[in-house]
Amino acid sequence: MIVLGIETSCDETSVSLVEGGCNVISNVVASQIDLHRHYGGVVPEIASRAHLEAMIPVLREATSEFGGEKPDAIAVTVGPGLVGSLAVGVSFAKGLSWSWKLPMVGVNHVEAHTYAPMLEGKLPPFPFLALVVSGGHTLLALIPSVGRMEIVGETQDDALGEAFDKVSIYLGTGYPGGPVIDALSREGNPAKVRFPRPMKGSGNYNFSFSGLKTAVIRYVEKASSRDELPGNADIAASFQEAALEVVVEKTVHAAAELGIGHVVAAGGVACNKRLRDWLEERCGGEGIEVIFPSPQYCTDNAAMVAGLGFLLLEKGITTGLGVDVFPGLKPGEPVPS
Ligand code: KG4
Ligand code: ZN
Predict the structure, then answer these.
(1) Which atom of ligand 1 is nearest to the CA of 177?
(2) Residue of 31, 42, 110, 134 best suited for mutating to test ligand 1, as the one with most atoms within 8 Å of CB
(3) Which residues of the chain have pLDDT under 70?
(4) Ligand 1 centroid to 314 CA: how many Å?
(5) Distance 12 CA to ligand 1 centre (A)
(6) Residues 85 and 132 grouped into a single domain
(7) Is the domain of 150 the same as that of 184?
């Protein structure tokens, strides 16, 4: 079965064709980063309009090699995300489903991130633990079977990617901040500033990154007033170390306490080199396998939507053409049909 996936929940317009849930025929992603950079974050109104403009060219490119053949089904992200952005993708999916007379299935975006490894034949057996770290979400969840996601812990305020983005904007090093801080940190000293490790000893698996971001700002203010400010690379590396230490430790402890042998790390921040190395090392030491999708499948993409869509369709799950969008859909919440 060939599934055409559509993803427009935030600022990436993406269309993908995936065969059998694992063979990626095409995965085209049009990023809007250049449109939002000036504002230091995603502007919802600009995002929906950009999706509208990009949708047809992206679909054309994704299906160009396919010789005009129809796929067998459509999978589309229906939430969580920006309401206007989601509406563009869902309306488009409905149009294709209606005119091509194909079944359609609505997909939960956060859940789709956790299935990205299947695109490279790396999906572990159930149950596995998922760490989702992106610009909009930071959580640990137990995945017992397709369509189910039990939250083990989540951020109480900012998402991890959001903290990277805000710290980078504050340091004047650019947007999106994740890749910049990742690169800068490789040249910095992570022990230069001892920032707080928020909620490390909280006794649960929740996170908080807003206070850490404020701690960086306070530190920079104080150090510059004393003329003792280290370079951005040291500040970036010290911030990254503090944030990732909490994420790595909580992930390893959750897996050990739940007796889970496989961890999938997904979402944009899972591209981070230090996170990949550190989690690999800590999990390896505990006999836990950690699986990272390739970076192109960590950040938002339609192939992961087609992948999860395939598994849902295999279970006989479809979504009617009357489906709404669900901007506040909870990570484990099934899509209302
Ligand atoms: O998954 P994603 O593409 O979109 C959301 O669903 O949010 O994640 C985007 C986030 C941004 O905050 C970006 O700064 C962060 O992922 N990110 C990174 C890296 N690459 C992207 N954060 C840390 N290190 C990276 N290498
Ligand atoms: Zn995402």
Answers:
(1) 14
(2) 134
(3) 68
(4) 30
(5) 12
(6) no
(7) yes
- Please give the full DSSP string across 36-50, using - where no structure is assigned: HGGGTS--HHHHHHH
Q: Residue 163: which of 211, 195, 197 has the closest Cα?
A: 211
CA distance linking residue 25 with residue 16, whole number of Å = 7
On whether residue 323 sits in a domain, the answer given is no
Residue 165 CA, closest ligand 1 atom number: 14
The closest alpha carbon to 110, from 87, 140, 84, belongs to 140
Using CA atoms, how far residue 190 sits from 187, 193, 232, 238, in Å, is 9, 7, 11, 4
Q: Are 190 and 241 in contact (CB under 8 A)?
A: yes
Q: 207: which DSSP letter?
A: B
User: Cα separation of 317 and 147, whole Å?
Assistant: 10
Ligand 1 in contact with 188 (CB < 6 A)? no
pLDDT of amino acid 331: 83
Tell me whether residue 206 is in a domain: yes
Does the Cβ of 331 fall within 6 Å of ligand 1?
no
| Three-class DSSP category at 304 | helix
Residue 271 CA, closest ligand 1 atom number = 26
CB 96 within 8 A of CB 89: no
Token digits of residue 76? 């589309």
Q: pLDDT digit string (tens) for 167-196? A: 999 999 998 899 999 999 999 999 999 999
For 55-76, what is each residue's pLDDT tens digit? Answer: 999 999 999 977 767 899 999 9
**Is the full-model pTM beyond 0.85?**
yes
Q: How many separate domains does the chain show?
A: 2
